[in-house]
Specification:
The complex is a heteropentamer, with two copies of chain A, one copy of chain B and two copies of chain C.
Chain A lengths: L1 H12 L7 H17 L3 H22 L3 H8 L2 H6 L5 H30 L7 H25 L7 H27 L5 H30 L1
Chain B lengths: L8 H8 L2 H22 L14 H28 L2 H33 L7 H22 L3 H29 L19 H40 L3
Chain C lengths: L1 E10 L2 E11 L4 E5 L6 H8 L7 E5 L5 E4 L11 H11 L6 H6 L15 H15 L3 E5 L7 H15 L5 E5 L10 E3 L19
Parallel strand pairs in C: 3-7, 3-8, 5-6, 6-7
Antiparallel strand pairs in C: 1-2, 1-4
Helix pairs in contact in C: 2-4, 4-5
The chains are: A mainly alpha, B mainly alpha, C alpha/beta.
The structure holds protoporphyrin IX containing FE, adenosine-5'-triphosphate (2 copies) and magnesium ion (2 copies).
One magnesium ion binds next to helix 1 of chain E.
Chain lengths: ~220, ~240, ~200, ~220, ~200
């Protein structure tokens, strides 16, 4: 499992591997928001937490199709399936690699981008904590979506459709935490719920994903 | 003899070897003079207070950010038309320098914006254009990084640079259409009426010269590194 | 010992071959033949456990088997050695030197796999099999794109390394490999078009 | 060229072809917006034009990687390059197919989704016209981005990074038209500019894209 | 008449083969041979105009040539007939019946190409060549995965349809095709490792 994780991380940092691209995409979406809604600072501050979360969601989403598709196309996935490694560990390694290459950089970058949208000072901490607790669930749910669509050529768009609805709870609690923070309210409840979603996803989803993979390889 | 002879990689290396230390030295001298003069021997401006001193970094880096892109545009055209490798590699070497210059202009601007406008960031047209320029630099460098074959990468990034330049201009116009500005107008024009006072002007010119020389030195250095690594990979491919 | 009894398998809801029985003792190999589309790939995938059997039984230690198909599982962004080392780690074995030597890849070990020629890539795929050291190999057209010298390397590996250590191999091919091994022609086992059975039989 | 266009349209409507997925993605992003920024109708109405345009952009973006990548993977692209059909026509056919399968459905659906975000009544016409005039440029620019990244496996994320900055003018004028419409101002200038961008893209970009393709096939 | 004079070509900045000269008169074919990695694929791609020549000249009507490689340009979501019809339209010809018949694809014409077996897919790729009717064919390992009967179909097509109508073919292969045609072994033209030339020569 460690071998797979290090290989994936190494591939991500190679030419064409896409490390850092998720981050750049996050930045771009944040920049696009004011172009869409206009430069008014008050409006931007109002929608900042929501925009940051939606952008983080989309950035996580766009890097999902690399999770299994490349391994499927070159045949590695069938080979991994017959290797002495439970498919659940394969799924976990993949989700961990996705989180390390996407979730963590996003979390670290989000406060800096908060400036661009005039995010309220009190919202920074809940935004950061929310992303830290929430991004693992994004990676785990995304891995499940990727496992469902792995047999389809360029199934990226279909996967987005399957995954985005599953992201709704994470989005709601995450954005809520940041908005409550901005309004000076208590944020422990949404943050705890975010953590609970991630923990539950970690406990259950790898099995579902491994099952989906097995079906798709059949 | 034609200027294109310097487009031969070996000739380029030989010619620039003695130049690089001189340009670096000159750049450091100008920067030291300009910055020390600007920071310690000019009065505070009445409207900006002592924060005005940041222009000695802000304005040169902003200028270089734009000029680096222009240089990349010219170099890309030369590569596409005449296919001189040095030209493509120089464009590649200029990109990270331009990216850092853009970042410095953005950061110093943000630091300045806090006391002046009471905010770290405003969606002012000039600032926004710079953010877009930053994105263009990112995309350009990402494309270089994603392609293994150096000639393919040079071709594709050159096309991107051409198309990107047109769209960067268009964005500049669009952004002006979209928001009102807070930012200072251009004040380095030859029109004396609008210029900043002479006390600020001279040290500013010196530090701009320093930034230009520094840019030149870094691009030369980067180009030389690129040429050397091409040479190494060519030797490896040949099994030697 | 691999023992197959009265096996039936198919694709896309239709039964392709049925009544296939054979057994391969340890240290021996079997060559599958038959015209295009008869079901060789399907049979191998079924044996390797990648798709369900429609009937019959397969007696094979699946956790000791490996399947290799046209897609070699080669990552073009990793070097030849990195590719092999990864599979060695996954299978918990060490040492890729012997495999590199068996398939004459020593000179290419630092090369990115994406820049290999068709035959070189195929050799890398075969070297993977040498690295992981599984007892039962299911090989689908392993020598496609290989030149004669490489086919000989493969034969030497199969006979002197794999089979001589008690391995088993089932190989589908259209080319004469120059192995002396029993051959099974699947044409004889083709399921008739209206054969009962198959996944969708209960709908008819 | 017609043959290529009809083939692409036929492929798009086949299983796994992705017709309608862009539309569904558009819908989902619009649905996510209220989850992100909260249900306040006034805020939603304020950001509706921008959200619709940004969502349309992203939906167009997500279907881009299918333009050339599938043809490249199965070898059709080299075959098309050696066929008696200028590569510029190939590019145009691809852009047209993308527009017909993504741009047109988005334009038709946008007014309906405007309801969800409480879009002002006066903004519907400029939104619709803006999308009609602007989506061709999205497809043409996107085809250029796809041509640049076609050799890269799963270059989708990199392509987003290259393409989104190029989308900025279209986004600004499009969203501005809808916002001016909502405010009861004159919208001819931004709409004309949108049309001009599309016309210029149509005239120039196919050549750049064909050049990029030729380089990538080398 | 295809005439190649003193051609050099390479990949990844290094020269692979140099000094290749041959000519193929109309109605004849040439078989390229050589060990894996010698540069057959590279040479064919260069001849087809898909990559630049490093030296020498190729005298060939490029607008009359077609290149076919391992990737067949087959769309898995289109049926066999739809695939061929598309290429017929692109090349402005009509009628795919003869091609279907030449490669024994009549029974499969309505089948989605994605469900074909390896050899059937290869036959479809070859049928594409029959449909487009180009005069000069550059074929890279055309008979990979084909069974003996299909190889014969290919030979018949090549001799009786393509060459007899004044076509030209250059074929890289490792398998004996049973064609009686001159053979060119590229081993003799391998560029020495430190040959000058190649795209990156000026860096050294
Ligand atoms: C954070 C983003 C900022 C960016 C990207 C930015 C960009 C630029 C650029 C490009 C120039 C050179 C313009 C030219 O000479 O044509 C410039 C100059 C200047 N900037 Fe900024 N700026 C930023 C923030 C600020 C702030 C907050 C202030 C202070 C209020 C400021 C004050 C000036 C002044 C006084 C000049 C010199 C006048 C001039 O030559 O135009 N800038 N800036
Ligand atoms: N999804 C599917 N639906 C219907 N038929 C299918 C499907 N997949 C494969 N087939 C058919 O099953 C048959 C067996 O395919 P298989 O790949 O096993 O053949 P093969 O013996 O390996 O042939 P080859 O020598 O060409 O590789 C073929 O006739 C093929 O057309
Ligand atoms: N991008 C690259 N960089 C360096 N070397 C490369 C690159 N691409 C191919 N090569 C090398 O060029 C050589 C020729 O490759 P080519 O595919 O032409 O061989 P081939 O004769 O077709 O071999 P095969 O019989 O295996 O198909 C190989 O040794 C290969 O490793
Ligand atoms: Mg098969
Ligand atoms: Mg080859």
């Amino acid at each position: 499992m460690i071998a797979l994780l290090t290989r994936d991380l190494r591939l991500a940092t190679r030419a064409g591997g896409g490390f850092g691209l998720g981050l750049a995409f996050f930045l771009i979406v944040i920049v696009l928001v004011p172009f869409g809604v206009g430069p008014d600072a008050a409006v931007l501050a109002r929608i900042a937490p929501g925009s940051l979360w939606v952008a983080a969601l989309l950035a996580a989403l766009l890097s999902l199709d690399r999770i299994f598709a490349l391994d499927h196309e070159d045949g590695s996935l069938s080979l991994l399936a017959t290797a002495p490694l439970p498919l659940e560990s394969v799924v976990l390694a993949k989700a961990a690699a996705h989180w390390l290459t996407t979730g963590v950089p996003l979390t670290l970058a989000a406060p800096a981008l908060g400036f661009l949208l005039h995010l309220e000072g009190a919202a920074y901490a809940p935004l950061f904590l929310g992303l830290l607790l929430g991004t693992p669930s994004l990676s785990l749910i995304g891995t499940f979506g990727a496992a469902l669509t792995v047999g389809l050529r360029r199934g990226g768009l279909l996967m987005s459709l399957l995954v985005l609805p599953l992201y709704v709870p994470t989005l709601i609690f995450g954005a809520e935490a940041a908005r409550r923070g901005a309004a000076g309210l208590d944020v422990t409840v949404p943050l705890m719920l975010l953590g609970a979603i991630s923990a539950a996803a970690l406990a259950a989803l790898p099995f579902a994903s491994a099952y989906a993979l097995r079906v798709n390889l059949r | 003899m034609s200027i294109w002879e310097y487009a031969n990689p070996k000739k380029f290396i030989v010619t620039t070897t003695p130049l690089v230390p001189w340009i670096f030295g000159l750049a450091l001298a100008c920067l030291t003079v300009g910055l020390v003069w600007g920071f310690f021997f000019t009065p505070d401006a009445e409207r900006f207070g002592s924060t005005v001193k940041i222009i000695y970094i802000h304005v040169p880096s902003a200028l270089m950010a734009i000029n680096a892109w222009l240089m990349m545009l010219v170099a890309s055209l030369i590569w596409l038309v005449r296919r001189h490798h040095v030209s493509a590699l120089a464009a590649r070497a200029a990109a990270p320098v331009g990216l850092v210059m853009t970042l410095i202009a953005l950061i110093t601007g943000a630091i300045w914006g806090q006391p002046m406008w009471g905010t770290w960031w405003a969606w002012d047209p000039r600032l926004t254009s710079f953010l877009i320029l930053f994105l263009f630099y990112l995309g350009y460098l990402a494309l270089w990084g994603a392609i293994d074959d150096p000639d393919t990468a040079a071709d594709l990034t050159s096309v991107l640079c051409l198309v990107g330049s047109v769209f960067a201009l268009l964005s500049r116009y669009a952004v002006n259409f979209w928001a009102q500005g807070l930012h200072q107008g251009a004040s380095l024009s030859l029109d004396r009426e609008t210029n900043v006072a002479d006390v600020f002007y001279l040290p500013l010119l010196v530090s701009i010269a320093g930034f230009v020389l520094l840019f030149l030195a870094l691009v030369l250095l980067g180009t030389r590194t690129e040429i050397r690594s091409r040479r190494i990979s060519a030797l490896i491919a040949r099994g030697g | 010992m691999l023992r197959v009894l009265d096996l039936a398998c198919g694709r896309g809801g239709a039964m392709l071959v049925s009544g296939v029985s054979f057994s391969v003792p340890t240290g021996e190999s079997l060559i599958l033949r038959g015209p295009n589309g008869v079901g060789k790939t399907t049979l191998l995938r079924t044996l390797a456990g990648l798709q369900p059997l429609l009937a019959g039984s397969v007696d094979c230690p699946t956790e000791q088997s490996a399947y290799a198909s046209h897609a070699d599982g080669v990552k073009s962004q990793l070097s030849v050695a990195e590719n092999l080392e990864f599979w060695a780690q996954v299978y918990g074995v060490t040492g890729i030197a012997a495999a590199l030597r068996s398939f004459d890849l020593d000179d290419l070990r630092g090369r990115m796999a994406g820049t290999l020629s068709a035959g070189q890539k195929r050799r890398l795929g075969l070297a993977r099999l040498a690295v992981i050291g599984r007892k039962v190999l299911f090989l689908d057209e392993p020598t496609v794109s290989l030149d004669d010298a490489s086919v000989r390397l493969f034969n030497v590996f199969l006979r002197d390394v794999h089979l001589s250590r008690g391995g088993i191999a089932v190989i589908a091919t259209h080319i004469d490999l120059g192995l002396d091994a029993p051959t099974l022609d699947l044409t004889a086992f083709q399921a008739s078009a209206d054969a009962l059975g198959g996944r969708d039989a209960m709908f008819i």
